[in-house]
Write a structure and sequence with these properties.
Blueprint: E1 3-7, E2 15-19, H1 20-23, E3 27-32, E4 40-45, H2 60-64, E5 71-72, H3 77-87, H4 103-115, E6 117-118, E7 121-122, H5 126-134, H6 138-153, H7 176-180, H8 190-197, H9 201-210, H10 226-237, E8 240-241, E9 250-251, E10 257-266, E11 295-303, E12 306-307, E13 313-315, E14 318-323, E15 325-329, E16 342-346, H11 352-370, E17 381-382, H12 384-387
Parallel strand pairs: 1-5, 10-17
Antiparallel strand pairs: 1-2, 3-4, 6-7, 8-9, 10-11, 11-14, 12-13, 15-16
Helix pairs in contact: 4-6, 8-9
Length: about 400
């Protein structure tokens, strides 16, 4: 009884002997033997890939009867190959081009050549016709046919697996220990890190994309002494509600707490980016010194926001931002203003008295004006940053 050699398209290393009389049905369960594996029974589909992708799968059984020497075996190879032909039809541009063929495409070309051969020889013009039909150069078709003839002469099953396994440029690997041994100042940017590792900047960038190197922003935290840590812990524990350790399970809601913080800002920047119109003239900026730019201090005041039962915000908690500035009339006339015009000036020296005046004359009146009226008048507490000033 004749036997049919079956080759796995994806991994052509497992050869099976399939009974040809049973294979004429095209489908079924068959006994098989792997080389070096346990015998078993699997579902086998004999497929002719020469049919167009839109052709019905059942019609391929009749086309297989003319050439039962080649079949495809895999647990899911039949379904995957049929799906690939439905989703990925081979393009047919006008010009030939050398492209890397997939295994199922090489198998399709070999099936077509076997159907058009007579006594092991191709007819005149068959390779040219195959080149036009599959949009592949004649050299590729000839190499595939010559390889198949050598396999047949050696009594080997047809193997269309390509040899592109470990081809191409090898990936540059860098041990993580080399990165860890560098100091933080030597790896602040990709250019510095690539220079210290002896690699290209693009290679380091690809390693970042693969997750081998990760970007990290390291904040500067306050240096607390043991005394500072104890004071912070005492302040946190003082916010617990209850009389004993067993009843102190909840924190004070802090609805009557007001948080204040100060921040210095430069009046302007040495270089500032703007977006202008097509015909707009950029503004001329000047200063007496580009290194000693004047600074102004702001105090931001916020409280805990309030929400009603429906989740609507009735008080956003934003009290305001208060600059440490003052206004006085201009003493002299200039091209920019007349004499006596009110000019805003910066308080350059911020001391205890200036901060107290800011708190009494600006911050507290703003809190009274914006505090929710339904809560009524109640004592409120400033955060610890400003408690020493009160």
């Amino acid at each position: 009884m004749d036997s049919v050699s079956v080759v796995d398209v994806d991994d052509c290393h497992e050869i099976i002997d399939l009974d040809s009389d049973d294979a004429e049905d095209g489908q079924g369960q068959y006994n098989f033997n792997y080389f070096g594996a346990e015998p078993g029974v699997v579902e086998v589909n004999i497929i002719d890939l020469n049919l167009p992708p839109e052709a019905d799968f059942n019609n391929q059984q009749e086309h297989n009867e003319s050439n039962p020497q080649l079949a495809v075996f895999n647990n899911t190879a039949a379904e995957e190959t049929n799906q690939q032909h439905q989703n990925e039809s081979i393009p047919q541009p006008q010009s030939h081009h050398n492209r890397r063929l997939r295994n199922y495409e090489r198998l399709q070309i070999l099936c077509w050549l076997l159907d058009n051969q007579v006594n092991g020889q191709l007819k005149h013009g068959t390779i040219t016709e195959a080149s036009k039909q599959f949009n592949i150069t004649r050299q590729t078709i000839s190499a595939l046919w010559n390889k198949a003839k050598k396999q047949k002469q050696a009594s080997q099953p047809f193997n269309v697996d390509n040899k592109y396994i470990n081809c191409g440029k090898k990936r540059v690997e860098c041990p993580i220990d080399r990165i860890i041994q560098l100091s933080m100042g030597q790896r602040t940017c990709i250019r510095d890190l690539s220079s210290m590792l002896g690699l290209g900047s693009t290679t380091v960038w690809r390693m970042i994309q693969r997750g081998l190197i990760k970007a990290h922003t390291n904040p500067l935290r306050p240096g607390l002494t043991e005394k500072n840590k104890i004071e912070r812990m005492k302040w946190v524990l003082s916010l617990l509600i209850g009389d004993s350790a067993h009843t102190k399970s909840k924190f004070y809601p802090m609805y009557n707490f007001v948080v204040l913080d100060e921040k210095w800002f430069n009046q302007t920047r040495k270089s500032q980016k703007y977006y202008l119109g097509a015909n707009e003239v950029p503004q001329y900026r000047s200063a007496s010194s580009s290194t000693n730019i004047k600074k102004v201090m702001f105090t931001g005041v916020v409280a805990r926001p309030r929400y009603d039962e429906e989740g609507t915000c009735v008080f956003d908690g934003k009290i305001g931002i208060f600059p440490f500035t003052y206004q006085e009339p201009a003493k002299r006339a200039s091209k920019n203003r007349e004499r006596g015009t009110m000019v805003t000036k910066i308080i350059s020296s911020i001391n205890r008295e200036v901060t107290r005046n800011m708190l009494i004359h600006q911050i507290i009146p703003a809190i009274k004006a914006k505090w929710p009226a339904e809560e009524g008048l109640q004592p409120f507490t400033f955060n610890k940053t400003m408690q020493r000033l009160t």
